[in-house]
Amino acid sequence: MKRLQRDFFNRPVLTVAQELLGKTLAYKEHQGIITETEAYHGHDDPACHASRGHTPRTDVMFGPPGFSYVYFIYGMYHCLNIVTEAEGTAAAVLIRGVQYPQDPKVVLNGPGKLCRYFGITLTDNRTDLVVSKNFYVLDTPSYPSYDITPRIGINQGQDKLWRFVVRL
DNA sequence: ACCCCGATCGTA
DNA sequence: ACGATCGGGGTT
């Protein structure tokens, strides 16, 4: 099975967020089918960490597409994003949920839960998913239908319908 | 140096 | 509805 290449991520963040539904996130021994995503776009998106320009944390969002952006939140959770769009543009897709075929009883709905279960932490930040040996996305079929809603857990930018959820 | 609050989750 | 828990980033 082929992994997603740079050109997949080098497109508008809304397109990538929707087409990532159904793709398979692979991290070390774990694999999960992506079922929920959100788009964040630095320009005109107050909910985006990069909305106020470059900081040490958000620099990676301005970098080349296909890199991971992992951040630490609420003192106890990590969240995984994948950077999209051309270098110089801050945009990323938050991976909010995956199915876990290796053990369907495990429910990984929520960005903190899936990072905790997979073991994704800050040491995985700024990884190039196009070349990394044990962190990448497989090109499994996209889901054709999904719900479109406002993003979760934000206080600004709730007007944007930038969350995409597979109907299970 | 300090302070506020967050792209969450589990429990009540 | 709320507390846990702490780093980032803006402010002093």
Computed CA radius of gyration, to the nearest angstrom: 14 Å
Number of strands: 9
Anisotropy-based shape:
globular
Helical fraction: 10-25%
pLDDT < 50 runs, ≥5 residues: none
The biggest beta sheet reads: 9 strands, antiparallel
Q: What distance separates the N and C termini?
A: 24 Å
Number of helices: 4
Which whole number gives the mean pLDDT? 97
What is the chain-wise order of helices and strands?
HHEEHEEEEHEEE
Textual characterization of the structure:
The protein has 168 residues and is an alpha+beta fold. Helices cover 14% and strands 31% of the residues. The protein contains 4 helices and 9 strands, in the order H-H-E-E-H-E-E-E-E-H-E-E-E. Strands 1, 2, 3, 4, 5, 6, 7, 8 and 9 form a 9-stranded antiparallel beta sheet that branches. It binds a DNA duplex (12 and 12 nucleotides) through strand 3, strand 4 and helix 4.
Question: What is shown here, in short?
Answer:
The protein has 168 residues and is of the alpha+beta class. It is 14% helix and 31% strand. The model has no long low-confidence stretch (mean pLDDT 97).
Features:
about 170 residues; DNA-binding; 9 strands; nine-stranded antiparallel sheet; about 30% strand; about 15% helix; single chain
